[in-house]
């Protein structure tokens, strides 16, 4: 989908303590396609989606907020 131009966003699950919970191997594979994979709180979710829908820099958005984002080089 991402290779055909679809704007794909993957929201990682959060544990009960608020940390990201995900499969590192699968996440790294998706990240190689340029798909943003990040974890955020429910309060941050609308702003994350607005950033993604505007096709702005999701990685920069997560870095600015100290949010975990999976990158293909992990």
Strand content: 5-15%
Q: What is the terminal separation in angstroms?
A: 22 Å
- Overall pLDDT confidence: 88
Q: How is the largest sheet built, in terms of strand order?
A: 1-4-5
Order of helices and strands: EEEHEHHE
Helicity, in percent? 25-40%
Instruction: Count helical runs.
Output: 3
Low-confidence stretches: none
Write down how many β-strands occur, each being a DSSP E stretch of 2 or more residues: 5
> Using only CA atoms, what is the Rg?
12 Å
How would you sum up the global shape? globular
What structural class should be given to the helix and strand makeup? alpha+beta
Describe the sheet with the most strands: 3 strands, mixed
Model description:
The structure is a single chain. Helices cover 32% and strands 14% of the residues. By secondary structure, the chain is α+β, with helices and mostly antiparallel strands. Strands 1-4-5 form a three-stranded mixed sheet. Strands 2-3 form a two-stranded antiparallel sheet. The two termini are 22 Å apart.
Question: Can you tag this structure with a few keywords?
Answer:
single chain, 74 residues, alpha+beta, three-stranded mixed β-sheet, two-stranded antiparallel ribbon
Topology:
Elements: E1 10-11, E2 13-14, E3 20-21, H1 24-31, E4 37-38, H2 45-53, H3 58-64, E5 69-70
Parallel strand pairs: 1-4
Antiparallel strand pairs: 2-3, 4-5
């Amino acid at each position: 989908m991402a290779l055909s131009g679809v704007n794909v966003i993957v929201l990682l699950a959060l544990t009960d303590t608020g940390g990201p919970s995900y499969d590192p191997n699968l996440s790294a594979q998706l990240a190689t396609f340029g798909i943003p994979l990040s974890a955020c709180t429910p309060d941050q979710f609308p702003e994350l989606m607005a950033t993604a829908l505007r096709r702005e820099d999701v990685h920069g958005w997560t870095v600015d907020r100290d949010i975990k984002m999976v990158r293909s080089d992990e």
